[in-house]
Amino acid sequence: MEISLDTGGSNLVRSYGPDRIVIGERTFRAAIVLSPEAILEDRLPRRPEELAPAHLEAVTALGPEVVLVGTGARLRFPAPEVTAPLLARGIGVEVMDTGAACRTYNVLASEGRRVVALLLLG
């Protein structure tokens, strides 16, 4: 799906599909961590069931107020122990399918919010 949002900002999702996420002119074919300032490609799992608390350490280091977890083509919740460290720090966590996470990320980033998205494919 193509997304069009004129914000003049950086690191916005331009389009997404089951096998790709396009940010600006770059196409990613694996899971990423995305913030307005950074794109991290650190060997993330493909499925939310494979997420571990260690995968979210890089997310926490980005200083978000809210983390969006995109779980692929359909909504699947990661284990509670994965998101517990974020919640314990007062960081909001929203889990949704990756398409919804991309759209929500773009809106929050364009509003200047401290948002980070963990976007899984599949």
Automatic annotation (TrEMBL):
Superkingdom classification of source: Bacteria
CDD domains linked: Xcc1710_like (cd05560)
Any Pfam family hit: DUF498
UniProt name for this protein: Mth938-like domain-containing protein
